[in-house]
Amino acid sequence: MKKILIYILVVIGICFIIPIFFTTKFKIKEIFCESEEKEEKIIQDIEKYSYSDFKTIKLLHKESGEVEEKPLDEYIAEVVSAEIPANYDVEAIKAQSVSARTYTIYKIIHGLKHENADICDDYACCQAWISKDDRLSKWKEGERIDNWNKIVEAVNSTIREVATYDGQIINAFFHSNSGGVTETASNVWGGEDFPYLKSVETSGEDAYTQYSSEVSLTEEELLNKLKAEYSDIEIDFANEESIKIIDYTESNRVKTVKFGNKEISGVEARRILGLKSTNFNITKNDGKIIFSVVGNGHGVGLSQTGADALAKQGFNYQEILKHFYTGIEITKLD
Ligand SMILES: [Zn+2]
After folding, report:
1. Which residue has the higher pLDDT, 187 or 28?
2. Over 90: is that where the pLDDT of 267 sits?
3. 162-179: average pLDDT
4. Which of 24, 129, 231, 281 lies at a C-alpha separation of 20 to 30 Å from 316?
5. Which of 246, 223, 221 minimizes the C-alpha distance to 235?
6. Is the pLDDT of residue 303 over 70?
7. What is the pTM of this model?
8. pLDDT top residue among 82 and 115
9. Are the beta carbons of 303 and 201 closer than 8 angstroms?
10. What's the rounded mean pLDDT across residues 181-185?
11. Which of 279, 257, 260, 281 is nearest to 268 (CA)?
12. What is the DSSP-derived secondary structure letter of residue 201?
């Protein structure tokens, strides 16, 4: 009898408890991503792969639900053209090319897939994408050919190159503007930290329009936005202490903020209130609550404006990548 009981407990352990431990530890949740993503976190030495393993990718068009197969570097050029302005320094565009390629291949290797696709075209979920035709039509006619050629040359000049750490392809997150200092991954998504995604400082990011923004809300607007998530929220707007930042992350982004009877994370506040980043302060003016925001994006990994700022200071794309991704190598796949 006792043996049977032990046997049952062992089976329950194997079937339910151990898998919970693993999925919790290794799941990386993308902000705003609705897809269920599974990461099979196995050691994946990059040496095992050749570039031809990634010849084509399956791209999910989020709105239509269609999955399109595309040659990898054609896809990367379109991603780069969607992610970074063509008038940025070519070294910044090359750095973005390696980042986007690395990010894509990481997703393929680690099985971070949408159901029938490797990656989707939603910037808030995976990475931005635009078709070549749509991209060209959005540029002024006289700039189209030069812009497109500049991007394709940046992609081709870094062909087969990916960022690796300790022989493994890295999870190459990138964002628009770090506000001068990047964020560690665990402060955004929880879970584990990556040794190559440390907080680093970059000068010159304040010269870009993406550096600062503001969201101004009436008391009613703020309350309604928060109520949509927390129906029992109550805020005494007459009390100065009722809206307040409680603490900050190491990179000086908001870790916890108090709204009346609720304390929520900076990441949650960013999402609910539509703030460009979690680096914000709160002031009151003329009956309005003003969120003054520094930086744009989650702040993890490569900053696009930071890459351009560094390129203009004379750094090449490899140096830029090594600045944002600590301790990496640039590896050319066979
Ligand atoms: Zn996606």
Report:
1. 187
2. yes
3. 96
4. 129
5. 223
6. yes
7. 0.85
8. 82
9. no
10. 96
11. 257
12. B
Give the distance (Å) from ligand 1 centre to CA of residue 14: 31
Asked whether the beta carbons of 113 and 37 are under 8 A apart, the reply is yes
Confidence bin at 27 (pLDDT 50/70/90): very low
How many other CB atoms are there within 10 angstroms of residue 107's CB atom?
A: 23
**Cα separation, 178 vs 328, whole angstroms:** 20
Give, for 23, the enclosing helix (H) or strand (E): helix 18-26
Structure tokens at 176: 């628009």
CA separation for the pair 223, 233 (Å, rounded)? 8
- Identify residue 225 by its one-letter amino acid code: K
**Using CA of residue 258, residue 31, residue 252, residue 216, what is the dihedral sign?**
negative
C-alpha of residue 243 to centroid of ligand 1, in Å: 34
Q: What is the mean pLDDT of residues 326-334?
A: 96
CA 157 to ligand 1 centroid distance, Å: 27
CA 118 – ligand 1 centroid, Å = 8
Mean pLDDT of 264-279: 98
Centre of ligand 1 from the C-alpha of residue 172, in Å = 15
Of all residues in the chain, what percent carry a pLDDT higher than 70? 86
* Cα(220) to centroid(ligand 1), Å: 34
CA within 13 Å, CB half, 78: 20
What's the 33 CA to ligand 1 centre distance in angstroms?
6
Determine the distance separating the centroid of ligand 1 and the alpha carbon of 35, expressed in angstroms: 7
- Orientation angle between helical segments 90-109 and 304-312, nearest 10 degrees: 140
Top pLDDT among 92 and 16 is at 92
Helix H or strand E encompassing 119: strand 119-120
Whole-angstrom CA distances from 233 to 221, 245, 262, 284 are 13, 17, 6, 20
* Ligand 1 mean position, distance from CA 13 (Å): 33
From the CA of 22, how far away is ligand 1's center (Å)?
A: 22
Kindly state the average pLDDT of the residues 117-145. 95
| Residue 22 parent element (H or E) | helix 18-26
